[in-house]
Design brief:
With 295 residues, the chain is an alpha+beta fold. The chain folds into two domains: 164 residues, Ribosomal Protein S5, domain 2, CATH 3.30.230; 123 residues, GHMP kinase, C-terminal domain (Alpha-Beta Plaits), CATH 3.30.70. Helix content is 36%, strand content 25%. The protein is built from ten helices and eleven strands. Strands 1, 2, 3, 4, 5, 6 and 11 form a seven-stranded mixed sheet that branches. Strands 8-9-7-10 form a four-stranded antiparallel sheet. A hairpin with a 3-residue loop joins strand 5 and strand 6. Helix 2 crosses helix 3 and helix 6 runs antiparallel to helix 7. The radius of gyration is 19 Å and the shape is globular. The chain starts with a strand and ends with a strand.
Length: 295
């Protein structure tokens, strides 16, 4: 027996939606899975050179963790061909896609018949927050709260381009989290949460200009993390006269501009000329989440 597991990438936070808002995008991790005598992960895409090819692979570790949760000691051995166009450690949810893929591996190989809610709970408990794993599972935009129990709403998004600007350097999430403040004052908390509240309302109403305004007012993470990204302010200045808004994707260093096709067609060449060493990647929202097909 064999399966194909297809997991979309994500962008998280969208400004002030720190650890709670994420959107699935049309970049993918794809696994071709077939039963084998021992575990083997076979990379078929560039940029996977450093990934473990045996049981040290994160996807196997997640699959085993799920198996143990349901009283299985092991997961049947497989040969897994891995294809991905998701840049690693760039703030586009590469680790979250691996978590979701690992859950699906356990689900099909052990015939667990997990419900969507069960997958969401497991993935969020592993990740610690829903912003990346939930849209990988559900597609579209997911706004979630997690405190030992997950509460979420799903918002499909159409006719919006997420223009990813991807630099050549990596930024580990642990490093990006280390610069965040441990506490906020009461006044700062009110300001930060009000920006996040209006951001959620703007997403639900499809008011992208308002969302863009709120992105720039984020208190939670962008003011602190931008020090790790030398081009942050200059790129904001270059883009924000023409786009709805620009935000730091996840922990960074990728930045994403919300725009439409007309603006992108008119301005993209000029933007690329300003930063020719960056990858400029126009992305669409993927409104379908992970898929698993038996072949």
């Amino acid at each position: 027996m064999s399966w194909v597991i297809h997991v979309p990438a994500t962008t998280a936070n969208l400004g002030a939606g720190f650890d709670s808002i994420g959107v699935a995008l049309n970049l993918y991790l794809t696994l071709e899975v077939e039963l084998s005598e021992e575990w083997e992960f076979v990379p078929l895409s560039e940029g996977m050179d450093g990934l473990p090819l045996d049981k040290n692979n994160l996807m196997y570790e997640i699959a085993l963790q799920v198996a143990n949760k349901f009283d299985f000691n092991e997961v049947p051995a497989c040969r897994v061909k891995m294809t991905s166009n998701i840049p690693l450690a760039r703030g586009l949810g590469s680790s979250a896609t691996a978590i979701v893929a690992g859950i699906e591996l356990a689900n099909v190989l052990l015939d667990l018949s997990l419900s969507l809610d069960q997958k969401l709970e497991i993935a969020t408990a592993i990740e610690g927050h829903p912003d990346n794993v939930a849209p990988s599972l559900l597609g579209g935009c997911v706004i979630g709260h997690y405190d030992n129990q997950l509460n979420w709403i799903h918002v499909p998004i159409h006719d919006l381009i997420f223009l990813a600007i991807i630099p050549s350097f990596e930024l580990k999430t642990t490093q990006a989290r280390s610069v965040l403040p441990a506490t906020f004052s009461y006044k700062e908390s009110v300001q930060a949460s009000s920006v996040a509240n209006v951001s959620v309302a703007a997403i639900c109403q499809g008011d992208w200009e308002l969302l863009g305004t709120m992105m720039e007012k984020d208190h939670f993470h962008q003011p602190y993390r931008k020090a790790l990204i030398p081009h942050y302010d200059a790129l904001m200045e270059l883009l924000n006269e023409d786009v709805y808004g620009t935000f730091l994707s996840g922990a960074g260093p990728t930045m994403i501009a919300l725009t439409n096709e007309a603006v992108m067609n008119q301005k993209l060449k000029q933007w690329k000329n300003a930063y020719p060493s960056f990858q400029w990647l126009p992305l669409q929202v993927e409104n379908n989440g992970v898929t698993v097909n038996e072949i």
